[in-house]
């Protein structure tokens, strides 16, 4: 029987590559994001019987409800929720940051993710489905300018582990997926469209790609149903850890 994945943030990066990989592997995909034309491209590429586009701003809970109510019969039974839509905004230290940017990250990465999960739980429990929450290495390793972004991802990781506890005995699997540097539109969004800054960050680093991420997400989804990956952390080989910073007075 065909399985169905609801993948948020499927217009770009991890989400788009995952929609492609999952459909290629025989899944149906509900693909969400604000950019409707990009979702339509996925439908054109992968087929209307395999991809259902749901264009809405994930922070708009009314639009989320409407999109869930409008799912066609063939896409109604969701087996896997991939909570991927998210963003970082800014790299300034907290004392110089923009409060609006903080609110946008909290509304998208935390509030919307929690709301969609809440709304999907009854059907995921009924189907013994799965949830993969896209967290980040930023959840565990603080870095200058990571402030609220890292904190939103720490929420995602801890929420995932809490869900594991609450869903004990239901058969529902939950994974906190915590990647490091991956070249997508992430840095372009973070820097408000600074292509040069994005290129500079990834240049020579051999970062992971959206498709690398998609392949591992598919691997997790296809594991035998008695196995649960609680947390998984990935980095490109060229990324690792640095020493603590130490401020020295004169
Ligand atoms: P992209 O910017 O390439 O993709 C982000 C996706 O999120 C887009 O499809 C975008 O869709 C969607 N999205 C953002 N805001 C909203 C919104 N308000 N409503 C609906 N959809 C929204 O970045 P990535 O693929 O890299 O990021 C995917 C996830 O991975 C994010 O949660 C990110 O934090 C996380 N991550 C990324 C890492 C990296 O190095 N790239 C590393 C670790 C984690 P649209 O704009 O069309 O609405
Ligand atoms: C994205 C990875 O290191 O840029 O979550 O915060 S990082």
Write a concise keyword list for the protein shown above:
250 residues, Rossmann fold, binds 2-hydroxyethylsulfonic acid, binds NADPH dihydro-nicotinamide-adenine-dinucleotide phosphate, 9 strands, two-stranded parallel sheet, 8 helices, alpha/beta
Could you characterize the architecture of this molecule?
It is a single chain. The chain is α/β, with parallel strands linked by helices. It has one domain: NAD(P)-binding Rossmann-like Domain (Rossmann fold, 3-Layer(aba) Sandwich). The chain is built from eight helices and nine strands. The strands form two sheets. The protein has a seven-stranded parallel β-sheet, sandwiched between helices. Strands 7-8 form a two-stranded parallel sheet. β2 (28-33), α2 and β3 form a beta-alpha-beta unit. α1 packs across α8. The protein is globular and about 70 Å long. The termini are far apart. It binds NADPH dihydro-nicotinamide-adenine-dinucleotide phosphate and 2-hydroxyethylsulfonic acid. NADPH dihydro-nicotinamide-adenine-dinucleotide phosphate is lined by residues 9-15, 33-35, 57-59, 84-87, 108, 134, 136, 179, 181-182, 184-186, 189, 210.
């Amino acid at each position: 029987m065909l399985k169905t994945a609801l993948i948020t943030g499927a217009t770009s990066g991890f989400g788009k590559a995952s929609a492609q990989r999952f459909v290629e592997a025989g899944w149906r995909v509900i693909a969400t994001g604000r950019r409707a034309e990009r979702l339509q491209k996925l439908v054109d590429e992968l087929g209307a019987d395999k991809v259902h586009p749901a264009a809405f701003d994930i922070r708009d809970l009314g639009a989320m409800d409407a999109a869930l109510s409008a799912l066609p019969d063939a896409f109604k039974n969701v087996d896997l929720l991939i909570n991927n839509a998210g963003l970082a905004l800014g790299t300034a230290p907290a004392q110089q940051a923009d409060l609006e940017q903080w609110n946008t990250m909290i509304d998208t990465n935390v509030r919307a993710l929690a709301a969609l999960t809440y709304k999907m739980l009854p059907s995921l429990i009924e189907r013994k489905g799965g949830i993969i929450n896209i967290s980040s290495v930023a959840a565990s390793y603080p870095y200058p300018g990571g402030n609220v972004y890292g904190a939103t991802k720490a929420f995602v990781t801890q929420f995932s582990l809490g869900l594991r506890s609450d869903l004990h005995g239901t058969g529902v699997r939950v994974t906190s997926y915590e990647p490091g540097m991956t070249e997508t539109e992430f840095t372009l969004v973070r820097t408000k469209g600074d292509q040069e800054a994005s290129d500079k960050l990834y240049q020579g680093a051999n970062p992971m790609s959206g498709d690398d991420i998609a392949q591992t997400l598919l691997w997790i989804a296809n594991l035998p149903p008695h196995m649960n990956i609680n947390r998984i952390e990935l980095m490109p080989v060229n990324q690792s850890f640095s020493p603590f910073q130490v401020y020295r007075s004169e």
